[in-house]
Amino acid sequence: MAVKIIETRILSLSLVAIVAAETATGIFLAKTLYSLLIARLLEIFFLVLIVSIWSQGMSSVGLAPDKIFAGLKKGVIWSAAFGLCAISGFAILHAAHIHSLKLIRTDLPHGTHEVVLFFFVGGLVAPVAEEVFFRGIIYGFLRRWGMLVALFGSALIFVLCHATGSGVPLTQIVGGLLFAVAYEVARNLMVPITIHVLGNMAIFGISLVMQ
Fold first, then answer.
1. Which of 46, 74, 93, 114 meets the CB 3.0–4.6 Å disulfide criterion with 98?
2. In the chain, where are the structural domains located?
3. What pLDDT score does 122 carry?
4. Is 74's pLDDT higher than 90?
5. CA-based R_g, the chain, Å
6. What's the rounded Cα separation, in Å, for the pair 114 and 112?
7. Non-local CB neighbours of 172 within 8 Å, separated by 6+ positions
8. What single-letter DSSP state applies at residue 100?
9. With a threshold of 0.90, does the pTM exceed it?
10. Is pLDDT of 120 > 90?
């Protein structure tokens, strides 16, 4: 059984909701972690509302209530396996005198309060909002044209929406592909949500140590 197909109407309404949330917070609030938090919470609220009212409930984006805990457990297993692969890869590169950790380093704010808020927003709230949108809705919409179109299409959109600076967005490329594959295989959005949350937390933790 494949991932459920998302209707054009759901995608359109979701895009409107995302743009509205981003625009409203950008106009009425200064650009801070708090405004980002409010924007992501609004996006989660509107996306859940849209899917619940105009689609077949949260199960249409892989978040059936009775499968959330099972998805959480699978997500932890996926995260552990990917983490071991990542550690092995970094160890090999380090042995070759290639300092690869700088490729995933994230600039963190200064001050304990700001760091805690950064972890909460970027490590928990944002991944939930992004997975519902990029995998649950965009991947589900593109899935009508096959797995490969949905996989690379959703990953490309994910990378473009996170593009900053001139460097290669390695973590976004790997993450976009990994999250989509996890969703396709598990058919449970809680799996990529868990991987995304734990992955971001790990990257932020490494960045904190490297400061």
1. 93
2. 8-210
3. 96
4. yes
5. 17
6. 6
7. 158, 159, 162, 163
8. G
9. yes
10. yes
Instruction: Output the CA angle 99-102-107, nearest 5 degrees.
Output: 160
Give the other-Cβ count within 10 Å of 153's Cβ.
Answer: 18
Q: pLDDT grade, residue 118 (50/70/90)? A: very high
Amino acid occupying residue 129: A
DSSP 36-79: HHHHHHHHHHHHHHHHHHHSS-GGGGT--GGGHHHHHHHHHHHH
CA 14 to chain CA centroid, nearest Å? 16
* Six-digit token string for 131: 């997975």
Average pLDDT over residues 119-136: 97
Contacts of 158 (CB under 8 A, 6+ apart): 130, 134, 172, 175, 176, 179
Q: What angle do CA 85, 100, 33 make, to 5 degrees?
A: 95
Question: Between these two residues, 181 and 101, which has the higher pLDDT value?
Answer: 181
Range 174-180 contact pairs with CB under 8 angstroms and sequence separation of 24 or more: 175/199, 176/134, 177/151, 177/152, 178/82, 179/131, 179/134, 179/135, 180/135, 180/139, 180/150, 180/151, 180/154, 180/155
User: Which distant-in-sequence residues (6+ apart) come within 8 Å of 133 by Cβ?
Assistant: 14, 18, 43, 47
Q: Which of 209, 197, 208 is nearest to 79 (CA)?
A: 197
How far apart, in Å, are the Cα atoms of 155 and each of 40, 99, 161? 20, 26, 10
Cα–Cα dist 179/117, whole Å: 24
Per-residue pLDDT of 89-99, as tens digits, reads 888 888 887 77
